[in-house]
Amino acid sequence: MGEYRGYWWTLIVILTVTFGILGFAGVEVYRQAPPIPERVVTDTGAPVMTGDDILQGQSAWQSAGGMQVGSIWGHGAYQAPDWSADWLHRELVAWLELAAREQHGRPFDALSEEQKAALTYQLKREYRRNSLQSGTLVLSERRAKAIEQTASHYEQLFGDAPALRAMRDNYAMKENTLADPARREALTHFLFWTAWAAATERPGMVATYTNNWPPEPLIGNHPTTENVLWSLACVVILIAGIGGLIWGWSFLRRHDETPVAPLASDPLGGGALTPSQRALGKYVFLVLALFIFQVFIGGLTAHYTIEGQGFYGVDLSQILPYSLARTWHLQSAVLWIATAFLATGLFLAPLINGGADPRYQKLGVDVLFWALILVVVGAFAGNYLAIAQLMPPQWNFWFGHQGYEFLDLGRVWQLALFGGLCFWLVLMLRAMVPAIRVGGDKNLLALLCVSTVAIGLFYGSGLFYGERSNITVMEYWRWWVVHLWVEGIFEVFATAALAFVFAALGLVSRRTATAASLASASLFMIGGVPGTFHHLYFSGTTTPIMAIGAAFSALEVVPLAVLGYEAWERWSYRRTAPWMQDLRWPLAFFVAVAFWNMLGAGVFGFMINTPVALFYLQGLNTTAVHAHAALFGVYGFLALGFTFMVLRYIRPQVQLNEGLMRVGFWALNGGLVLMIFTSLLPVGMFQFQASVSTGMWYARSDAFLQQGFLETLRWIRTFGDVVFICGAVALAWQAVVLGLWGRGRGDVSPAPKPAASPAE
């Protein structure tokens, strides 16, 4: 540790405490997950459903696309309804109608205000009362009839009933989403259970299993007292955290007093490429191919929010429905960004190893590439077969579609991807461990090594749930992957990798790079690890989970306050030496990362992260605003920066075309701005007003979203999508056609490195 002992101990203590909190609170998640009744019966003893029926319904929901067809408890797609909120409201309305006719002989709407108020009071008492005893849930005969009526609607909706054809089109659902009537019936049992948990109070508490989510005035689903208090605490902690950061920044980020003298030539560009580095051309191709695929399939997904089952009049829904397009859109995003990070690590490995490949490194790089191809093809084919209902139900979870956002791929492909990451970890450690053993200051390399191990292993947390796991437990582990692995571990790896590269280039001293990386890692993880719980406020967890998530998610925003300085510092590197002009476009992408980190992760993230805000915003297009600005704005631009940096060194003879690079860079940024500020954010704000005034069910309903002005806003998004697509095509053409398969022409002079062999 040497002079960095304080930094290391700070990081170790932070990781120990924060993962301790995450682990101990995880026990609470398991213990307090909403129970699945063994039996559901009426008060006369008539059977309604069993626990096995509910779990069979969960499996049916997964095979239909799961979170890619509407959402459950706010997590999933934004086009179709949130099924928990929608079922709950439909069942409540059915109960009121039955009660009105039984007690007054008239429809509910024909009753006096006093009669309506009396029935609504009875409704609230019945639905919020917890009647689960010894594994048996007892319902009134009236509620059983309301459930039967509601279930009939969903059985028709997920089938091909002509009466609901227009609604399916509005929801972007294909005809016969679930072709088997038995599986449609099972699905209704699962949807009922999610709505029951959202309406029923926990024993000994005055809040439902989902902390009163979704907003539903009919039964008093309003923000809890704890929700409001922790929302206020969240703001106070944010202000205090920023103040503490300003006070302590100079201690955490000390810089050398003597500036580093610029080098006469690029220290990474003078030696010969190793065989494993020359083999990385195909990784760059895979990154750009998946990127282009994601962009185009994303355009189709966005268009489905307007036409539903068609693309400019052509019915694609039976071949490539919205649920499949959105699945591939999210999966390809994870895969191309992860591949870019893997390629960056593999490029650095020989540099770490003294400029030479460890034994059989090229073979390992080639094997890993084809393993990635196998995962991509297998996962995408499985997704298609599952959603098309061509795969046997018992195979779906393992080979088809798990149904969970970002973890949609079948479990076999998930295991294969985890195996590939572990194999990548072995390839990296073969270069890192011997280098660490050599004398000298290896603290920065040690941090890079630790983050590499974390990337390889943390994806495995997504294997800790099964097909029939309680969805609350599944959400806990899903966010270990989506939040911790993607937003936390990748952030630390990127920080350490960039610091290592900048130090190797002679742009900063090793001491400065090491201190900055350790300090940044501490800042990222102190809020990022327990902040995982801000995704679980309303997913069947208790108040302590909300408290932890609110408090620490506020601290997640704190380090983003200094990213403007980080961006300027990185951009200033381009003038340190003439040869740095060759790296100005990767630097430009890193500057964009800092900007979108501040806006997408910081501003838009905090906009929806306080419990009281998220109570009304969860599952609306405001979540998509944060997702697009943070996932692509941060990790997408970061991956592109890494990709073009690797391309610059493995194809040193290539001259980047300045026109294409400018179009690509600014069109991606401009397109992202346009799609957010002209469409996603305005639609989300109108939904927010509807959620507060009427309820979540209405904010996500086709009656609301198919209003003319909202359709116009979704059409306007096309302009941003087209600009973004043009930027993506420009960059892909530059990297693949001019970079990997030919010699580009432009203003950038080639680096002083021998020409590499063609892409392998």
UniProtKB/TrEMBL annotation:
Q: Does the keyword Membrane apply?
A: yes
Q: Which residues cross the membrane?
A: 6-30, 229-249, 283-306, 333-355, 367-392, 412-432, 444-465, 485-508, 515-533, 545-565, 585-608, 628-651, 663-688, 722-741
MF terms per GO, please? nitric oxide reductase activity
Record's superkingdom? Answer: Bacteria
EC number(s) stated in the UniProt entry for this protein: 1.7.2.5
Q: Does the keyword Transmembrane helix apply?
A: yes
> Keywords of this protein's UniProt record, alphabetized?
Membrane, Oxidoreductase, Transmembrane, Transmembrane helix
Broadest EC class assigned to this enzyme = oxidoreductase
Q: Which residues form the Nitric oxide reductase subunit B cytochrome c-like domain?
A: 37-215
Q: Pfam families recorded for this chain?
A: COX1, NorB_cytochrome_c-like
Q: PANTHER family given for it?
A: CYTOCHROME B SUBUNIT OF NITRIC OXIDE REDUCTASE (PTHR10422:SF38), CYTOCHROME C OXIDASE SUBUNIT 1 (PTHR10422)
This chain belongs to which protein, by name? Nitric oxide reductase subunit B
